[in-house]
Amino acid sequence: MAEIPQVQTVALVRDLGGPVEFPEDYPVPVPGTNEVLAKILYTGVCQSDLHTKNGTAAGPDGVPLTKLKLPHIGGHEGVGRIVALGPGCGSDLKEGALVGIRFASRICRRCEYCLAGTEQYCLKSTNHLIHEDGSFQKYIALDADYLTLLPDDVDPKVIGPVLCAGVTAYKAVLEANIRAGHWLVVVGAGGGLGHFAVQYAKVLGAQVIGVDAPDKRDFVLGLGATEFVDFVTTDPIQRVREITGLGAHSAVVTASNPKAFLNAVEMLRVGGTLSCVGIPPASTTLQTPICTIVIKGLNIRGNLIGSLKECMEAVDLTRRGLVKPEVKVRPFKDLPAIYEEMERGEISGRIVLEVQ
Q1: CA distance 247 to 152
Q2: How would you list the strands of the sheet with 183-187, edge to edge?
Q3: Which residue(s) pair with 18 in the sheet?
Q4: Cα(129)–Cα(190) distance, integer angstroms
Q5: Secondary structure of the chain: what % helix, strand, coil (to 5)?
Q6: Helix (H, G, I), strand (E, B) or coil at 121
Q7: In 10 A of CB 50, how many CB atoms?
Q8: pLDDT in tens, 18-76
């Protein structure tokens, strides 16, 4: 095992809205009791990282988050290997084991949500966006009691995005109440979240209608979508109704444009389900009239990532080749350029950084 250095290179944001810097003298953490130290190999880049860096990420009350760890190191789609064990770690943990760095970093394991297997809602939880340094660094300390142990035969280049975008899309599709043969619309089907949602819906037997810009057509159909709707040159509501007759059974919205949510509701049939994933700006509200929700008997579900169990289910679908993340691997220091491309909506699939 190579010697562990005392300092490392990280992608650092000193102030909300500030630039990304790459200091080379950031301390390497020392694993404490029940912690492991992992060397990060690859990490995906999530839209939430961009929102957090810019100071536009919102909490459950819709108010932008301002109380987060500064300086800030983002990243929560990381894959690495354990290089050191802190005191008290169990005998099942070994150096060299492949681990994931997810959004959630620590939970209480005692509250109602943790006991119910919905620990992503634990009120005492911490995460790698707000409370702790994330995977945009070379070394990271992780809670050994809430560790994401990955199978040794997964490809570390592609599995990182499954730990956030993948499990979030998987959860959204599960919450969409679909059955085999149902019509499910994915709005933003060519994006990082959307391209996962298309594939998970296909695995569960849905007929998928992908909605996105015209340049995403071939990509989305290549993922297995039954139909593609171009929202730029056609009326997506009318086109979905033409395809489905009565309207879609469900819609998963991975886009963050407020209009996408209003349109998705109009695409649903009676008793349909709107499964919300994308997060618009903090002040945005759902503009659908309440009478529409009542008269059509609509279901509206929100989705905040998923549990560790659901994460491992999503990982297994990729491991078995049923879901194939579309990733492009780029150098670590491309992160600022990637953020700019995200803001311009130029990215299909997911970008993964090679952390070397």
Answers
A1: 43
A2: 227-230, 207-212, 183-187, 248-253, 268-276, 299-302
A3: none
A4: 24
A5: 30, 25, 45
A6: helix
A7: 18
A8: 999 999 999 999 999 999 999 999 999 988 888 888 877 666 656 666 678 889 999 99
Q: Is pLDDT at 210 greater than 80 in this prediction?
A: yes
State how far the Cα of 204 lies from the Cα of 174, in Å rounded to an integer: 9
- Whether cis (ω within 30° of 0) applies to the bond prior to 71 is yes
> Which structure tokens are listed for 62?
């819709």
Cα 194 from Cα 197, distance rounded (Å): 5
Integer Cα distance of 305 and 120 in angstroms? 7
Regarding beta strands 350-354 and 327-331, do their DSSP bridges make them parallel or antiparallel, or are they unpaired? Answer: parallel
CA-closest candidate to residue 53, choices 329, 345, 336 = 336
Q: According to DSSP H, which parts of the chain are helical?
A: 47-54, 112-115, 156-159, 165-174, 194-203, 217-222, 236-244, 258-267, 290-296, 308-319, 335-343
Which CA distances in Å does 74 have to 175, 244, 259, 282?
28, 41, 29, 20
Is residue 37 within 8 A of residue 86, CB to CB? The reply is: yes
- Segment 159-168, tens digit of pLDDT: 999 999 999 9
* Calpha distance 32→124 (Å, rounded): 19
Q: Which residue has the tokens 């990060």?
A: 40
Helix (H, G, I), strand (E, B) or coil at 171: helix
